[in-house]
Amino acid sequence: MKNETILLAVVALIVGLLGGYLVFSISSSNKEQQAMPTIPAGSGTPTDYARRIAEAEKIVAQDPKNLTVWISLGNDYFDTDQAQKAINAYGKALELDPNNTNVLTDQGVMYRRVGWFDKAIANFERALKIDPKHLQSLYNMGIVYAVDLKQPAKGVPYWKRYVEVDPTSATGIRIKGMIEQYAKGTPPVMK
């Protein structure tokens, strides 16, 4: 009788552990599904973007501290040329993670798009203070100064820093060409 009691206790323990694992797995799976929109970011048709944006807006309405979804929402607004909405979504993300260099830079690009060059520069400077080799901030700082503000003397040094860090990439090579054109006194044509 003692062996049967021990066997029954072991079986009950195993069933309890498996049941707990299954409940935890299902609960975690539902949370993961709520955390991210189901359509992959950075791709899709306008309908896909609209659906993904709607899903993300619902999620952040229920969970306003969901950094990942705020960033995804900002990126989707960025990709669909909704600059002000992107600025706002990135602002929410930066409230949660103020030192995120990529979000600072993406918000800076959106500031540039609406013509707020001083705010764009401030974002790029903040990102560069956190990571002095942040390539996107170096590139965009050069663009704002050299192209938008027509101050290549202020922009080219940022591009030179970019090239020091990444001289052989396609962007690095393109930047070298832009620096050469400014040195000749003929600004590059930006597309």
Work out the helicity level.
over 70%
Judged by helices, strands and strand pairing, the structural class is mainly alpha
The radius of gyration computed from the alpha-carbon positions, rounded to a whole number of angstroms, is 25 Å
What does the average pLDDT come to? 84
Please report the total strand number as a whole number: 0
Main sheet record: none
Which second-level CATH architecture of the domain at 117-191 applies?
Alpha Horseshoe
Describe the structure.
With 191 residues, the chain is mostly helical. 77% of the residues lie in helices and 0% in strands. The N and C termini lie far apart (84 Å).
Using brief descriptors, characterize the structure shown.
Serine Threonine Protein Phosphatase 5, Tetratricopeptide repeat, 191 residues, elongated, mainly alpha
Can you describe this structure in just a few lines?
By secondary structure, the protein is mainly alpha-helical. The protein has 9 helices and no strands.
Give the helix/strand layout.
Blueprint: H1 2-35, H2 46-62, H3 67-79, H4 83-96, H5 101-113, H6 117-130, H7 135-148, H8 152-165, H9 170-183
Helix pairs in contact: 2-3, 3-4, 3-5, 4-5, 5-6, 5-7, 6-7, 7-8, 8-9
